[in-house]
Amino acid sequence: MDNYEKTALRELKYWQKNMQRKPSIGSKMSKGMQDKINHIIPEQAHKIITEAIKNMVKMVAVGSEYTTRKPILQGSLRQREELLNKRIDFYKKAGAVSGAGTGAGGILLGLADFPILLSMKIKFLFESASIYGFDVKDYRERLYILYIFQIAFSSQERRNEIYNIIKDWDNYILTLPENSEAFDWRVFQQEYRDYIDLAKLMQLVPGIGAVVGAYANYKLLNQLGYYASNAYRMRVFKKIEL
Predict the structure, then answer these.
(1) Whole-model pTM?
(2) What contacts 203, CB < 8 A, 6 or more positions away?
(3) pLDDT tens for residues 149-205?
(4) What is the distance between the alpha carbons of residues 131 and 32, in angstroms, rounded to a whole number?
(5) In 59-91, which positions are buried (b, 16+ CB within 10 angstroms) versus exposed (e)?
(6) Which helix (H) or strand (E) holds 81?
(7) Which of 67, 132, 204, 229 has the fewest other C-beta atoms within 10 Å?
(8) Nearest one of 11, 12, 16, 10 to 162, comparing CA atoms
């Protein structure tokens, strides 16, 4: 193991420790408030939102499956992550431009940023899988991508649950059905929506929407890059151990 890998392993262990910490009182209160709001929202509205996000993610995923290059099978961890960091920078800048443009355009354009940002995140995760050597044509790898998405944009309580799934991924996939229809899209959309609600609502405020939109998108994509790198490092280091 070289010095880069030793440093990456230390960073991974720190990330793993954070993924297993108990939800704070503030986190529990925030989650409880969001749950109460979700109970007030009519069931039909939840179904519509869930289907909309499900179809949107699936549409981007299908396109990304065929446009993402083949998995990179050769290269050190350092080489892979140098390439990953370039993609993170690209998507952060693209997200900031989108957030600034739509945030400056009022409520309608501000709302339009939601699907744009979502598609960027999914496309980035497909590229990340390829960079670390995993084939997105396998639906189980696409499912792993959705779990990375969730763990990056969920409450701490939900992160604890997802971490327990992905830390033992090789055994977990043995329990999976033949297709990904069993994925819990309702939880997926609620956790994601609750997590980014404040930032996206602030983006709709006249006068500050452009600044908030650019900053929020930049930070959200940077955060996704951090979670993606560690989620894949976890699998890479397991291979090294074997």
Answers:
(1) 0.78
(2) 99, 102, 103, 110, 113, 209, 212, 213, 216
(3) 889 988 888 899 999 999 999 998 888 766 656 677 777 767 776 665 545 544 444
(4) 38
(5) ebbeebbeebeebeeeeebeebbebbeebbeeb
(6) helix 77-103
(7) 67
(8) 16
